[in-house]
Amino acid sequence: MAQGSGTRDGYRAAAAGLAAVTFGAGLGELSAALFLPAASPFAVIGGALIDIAPSWAKDLAIALFDTFDKAALLIGIAVVLAAIAAAAGLLERRRAGAGVVIVGAIGVVGAAIAMTRTGAGAFSWAPSAVAGAAAIVALRVLIRRLRPDLALAAPAGGESRPIDRRQFLIWTAAAGAVGVVALVAANVAHGASRSIEAIRKALRLPTAAERAAPIPAGAELDIPGLAPLVTPNRDFYRIDTALVVPQVDPAEWSLRIHGMVDRELVITWEELLALPMQEADVTLACVSNDVGGSLIGNARWLGHPIRELLARAGVADDADMVLSTSVDGFTASTPLEVLTDDRDSLLAIGMNGDPLPVEHGFPVRMVVPGLYGYVSATKWVTQLEVTRFDRVDAYWTTRGWDARGPIKLQSRIDVPRRGRQIDPGETMIAGMAWQQHVGVRGVEVRVDGGSWMTADLATAISDDTWVQWSVPWTAESGDHQIECRAISATGDTQTSNRTPPAPNGAEGWHRISVSVA
Length: 517
Ligand SMILES: Nc1nc2c(c(=O)[nH]1)N[C@H]1C(S)=C(S)[C@@H](COP(=O)(O)O)O[C@H]1N2
Ligand SMILES: [Mo]
Known about the structure:
This protein is of the alpha+beta class. Helix content is 33%, strand content 22%.
């Protein structure tokens, strides 16, 4: 053996492990993309990790990566997988079979998880099995080239053949390259499922039987840096547990209303489109939105009142909750009364004049004024089960969040931006305030703990939306702290008591630091 080749062969074995696992992952992902998109090994393992992750880990992911939490998860999985793959290569070189067991175990775990996911079919295990088997074969073939004693054609008499490292390198590079090409191909094949996007683009929304009033004059303050009153779809925050955005063909979509009802109801897409549609401006907010955060947006939704559908089904007197379920298994528990009272709780198909964007629930989602999204805004919704809070817990309730999630009174400073340096002199402090379905009566602002100034409140679209506010300020040189607090339409003042988002929404005043120079 050449000097140092022992260590070097260690690196080579690790590289072989990486190449073998890349090869397996590629073939597994490609077979999934071609035959069983929902059974993609990455997607099922990632999805399961999302579901079993403790709430604090998800909060942390949202805090650290904001809406990029899913990309971060995929990268995390890839890094862990790469480490395991390298270790498997090293072990397999030491002891034939040891690395194979590890690689095989990943495949088995993937296959087992695939079978437990919502919507799993009889063959959902197959892509992970393909991945595991391909990785095992590749690992054995590659490591043998580093271990002439294992080579099938090893000459008798214990006399070992020299290792052909060039050959090894070529085979390893080839396995890795095939894996990468297969991964890319899988991605492209997956992109073809953007046919749902094509269906969406070709859709024409029905016109509303009941139009929303135009946005009132003076509702939108023209202040640079202030969030727009209506959030464009492309800028609308996205929060969900779906690692791969569900691709739902409207032609195959239906909504089943069942449980404690007089008669079960199934509504198809065609039937839904034929029902009278209503527009409503509603601000959606995430319970994970921390004080001053951006997980909130306002849109004009188009949909059919859920109230009407529940009335058709006939709801039992002792029911108090509707459990809505998405195609991907996510569930939300919504108090029955907010779906049957006179508020604009919609089974929505349109968002700001367009069909729902695929990542915002295409073709159909729920929108309920006054509740955080996790208990009301089910995207890709396919079932409404009329039931009781004491019978069933929804997705986030089983993870420690409150079963009911009314939106809390909140306000946010958008201008000046936190941490910014601004010029001395006349300037504007401006922001947003909200407590959907209650409404905001006023906003107060103070600088450096001084006395509260009353902000000018813009005209609100309605009590179901956020409202803009502003207050003039003469900025003097130095560092300053600006705080705001809202007063609700019912006369409550936003509490200064700071609480984290879990388990039912953050409280406290938004405070920013700016320096004037
Ligand atoms: N199917 C499904 N619907 C869902 C969720 C989800 O994880 N899956 N998350 C909910 C949460 S927590 C929020 S805040 C809103 C966010 O809606 P958006 O992504 O359209 O802004 O969707 C809700 N609907
Ligand atoms: Mo949320």
